[in-house]
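README: folding subset

This subset contains proteins for which both the sequence and a predicted structure token string are available. Records are stored as plain text. Below is the entry for D-amino acid dehydrogenase (424 residues), shown exactly as it appears on disk.
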Amino acid sequence: MRVAVIGAGIVGVTTAFELAADGHAVTVFERRGSVAEETSFANAGVVAPGYVTPWAAPGMPAKVLRHLMGTHAPVRLGRPWAQGQLRWMWRWWRACSQPVWQSNRARMHRLARYSQARLGALSQQLHIEHEQAQGYMVLLRTPKDLAGNRGSLKLLAELGVKFHLVDAARARAIEPGLNPDTPLHAAVHLPDDGVGNCRQFAHLLRGEALRLGAQFRFQRSVLAIEPGTQPLLRHGDAASQDVQAEAFDAIVVCAALGSPGLLRPLGLRLPLAPVHGYSITAPLRIVEGHPEFGPQAAVMDERFKVAISRLGARVRVAGSAELGGRLDRHDARAIATLYKVLDDWYPGCAQLAQVQQWKGARPMLPDGPPVLGASGAPGVWLNLGHGSSGWALSCGSARVLADQIGGRTPDIDVEGLDVGRLRR
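--- output ---
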């Protein structure tokens, strides 16, 4: 089959590779000049299936209200709000009930575990080195933080996630670079989880897809899709205003926030909204006699919901969830929180004169899980809406989608991941 993939973020690249590996003739269309230039550019890099969870969760509306009242919360509301974002928040609020959240978290966890296994298999089989490191630890500063985490620990156990609740001394042995002066009550250690460089993996997997015959067309914006037995894709070069139309056997939409505009004329209104996240990345200091300077793998400060990851010779600090606002407007409070958490746990570990600051728009559906499979329009398929978990879900989502296009039953249960759930 001739298959077009729209979008070359981590989801689009993994989709292109899996389809090419199945023998399809794949062409990827990307409006930017390379892969992983937007949401996949500088994320935390953490792959921890047990902590892949819907943003729509019990207690989240109260956190949003606390923010509106001026108190600290890891959730922020940007400005301006669009009318569609207000509708999105209404659907998100309805999905925050305990039963809905439990169902959606189970769906996401199932896909995340499958994706973690697929990522590991591809890394090993293709000898892809993407600055990966094993181990993930959630830091609990006080007994109150631990008490607030009991429900999550219970759920981890129910989901079969391997973890250990450790005391402060054990946590500092696992991560010897942790600041001894910052209070630490306990930690949750997940030895089978870890961290990797999402953008680097995307570039290397693109190379593998090219070797399988896939084509990548950069700086080509998809303007319209016409469904059918041989769906038509219209694309153009913004610089030259050159518009072309090509027919394919199937079109896969992985265009993140560009997807709703392409799908709306087909009668499919996807409630995607940008939930922005921030990160700072800087080279680690080289201190003779202190090889443990900085994190060994990845940690997450539970109170501030900020992750600190080691990516080779660099450290990345990522967090915040900002609904609304603009990509080009940075919230100074969110950035300040990243610096604070880094200084709390690993003071002086980074060369901050060379810091790279980033803000990304994560395309999120109000209930949490992505949408995989047939769109309902002939010849058009969907793999989008992964939110802040795109890196953790990408390899599994791509394999599921490739199996569906090939007429095979996926290896995992995909109940609740189809577009039909958004029409109910």
